[in-house]
Specification:
By secondary structure, the chain is mostly helical. It has three helices and no strands. The structure holds zinc ion (ZN) (2 copies).
Length: 103
């Protein structure tokens, strides 16, 4: 008897006829899972990089990896643009507003 299995991405039940190797309901789910895994890999790698920079007192790398507004890790190049400086649009506009107030 076949075991009931579920899509690893969306959790939908896979058809009983699905092959044993099938883990997602369709290509969309598979692509989504792939992207999510890449992002979490990237976040892990960045977290390690940041811990190392902190350990070495490498302020340049720390600045590169963290949001200048709130100090949170920005995950540049993960799920966001590679050149992202701020962690979110909110931080970006906040810093813009502050700069505008100074000028
Ligand atoms: Zn699915
Ligand atoms: Zn921020």
């Amino acid at each position: 008897m076949a075991r009931i299995r579920f899509c690893l991405s969306c959790g939908a039940r896979l058809p009983r006829s699905a092959s044993a190797r099938r883990r997602y309901c369709d290509d969309v789910c598979r692509a989504q899972a792939y992207r999510a895994r890449r992002v979490s890999d990237r976040i892990m790698a960045l977290g390690m990089l940041l811990a190392e920079a902190e350990w070495n007192g490498d302020r340049r790398t720390m600045r590169l990896l963290t949001c200048p507004e709130c100090g949170r890790i920005t995950f540049a190049g993960g799920d966001r643009r590679r050149d992202a400086v701020y962690c979110s649009g909110r931080c970006r506009s906040r810093s813009w507003r502050r700069r505008a107030a100074v000028l």
